[in-house]
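Thread: Modeling a multi-component assembly for a lab meeting

Hi all, long-time lurker, first post. My supervisor asked me to bring a structural picture of a complex we are working on to next week's group meeting, and I have zero experience with this. I have the sequence lines for every component (225 residues in total). Could someone generate the structure of the whole assembly? Inputs are pasted exactly as I received them:
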Amino acid sequence: KQEVTQIPAALSVPEGENLVLNCSFTDSAIYNLQWFRQDPGKGLTSLLLIQSSQREQTSGRLNASLDKSSGRSTLYIAASQPGDSATYLCRMRRGGSEKLVFGKGTKLTVNP
Amino acid sequence: DVKVTQSSRYLVKRTGEKVFLECVQDMDHENMFWYRQDPGLGLRLIYFSYDVKMKEKGDIPEGYSVSREKKERFSLILESASTNQTSMYLCASSLGQSHTEAFFGQGTRLTVV
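Re: Modeling a multi-component assembly
Sure thing. I ran the full set together rather than chain by chain. Output:
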């Protein structure tokens, strides 16, 4: 069964710090991997989508990388701000399937 | 901008009631999904649909059914609500090709009392 793991489950950092969130998956036959942000009690907001043929995607202070051979993706957040506080989830879509498989998320707190 | 809209943000229902959760998307997406999200368990797929009138069970379909009569609308039905179905329900949609983003609604917080 394909699994997606996010470590750590929670992370607390001071404002201004650069940080990395991790996502690992057991199946390298993926179409793409997507990172989301979720604020408490709200839905998921798409941040970045990386296709299987890509190694990274950037949007503003966010950079996501994908290494299929090692089954890992990272989300790098530069110069973190209190407004970045949220839960970050990754999901993968396996080749040949329409199903989306999610990690349980990393809860990020950026302290002023 | 893709919009996925869930009909209610908060619902409170009684045990045994039949409950309908509605989801509408406005981007002509083929795929639509229903998840529930619980603390410590993450998002779990209940059902998904890849076309009108087509559906597939996800990981936890027991106690639920779905309806997709029109492409833009995907309904989740709790046949007889129970307290263990208290949860956050999230609807998502995506294009049928596998290389596209998934977009989520704002979520429905259902409480069964």
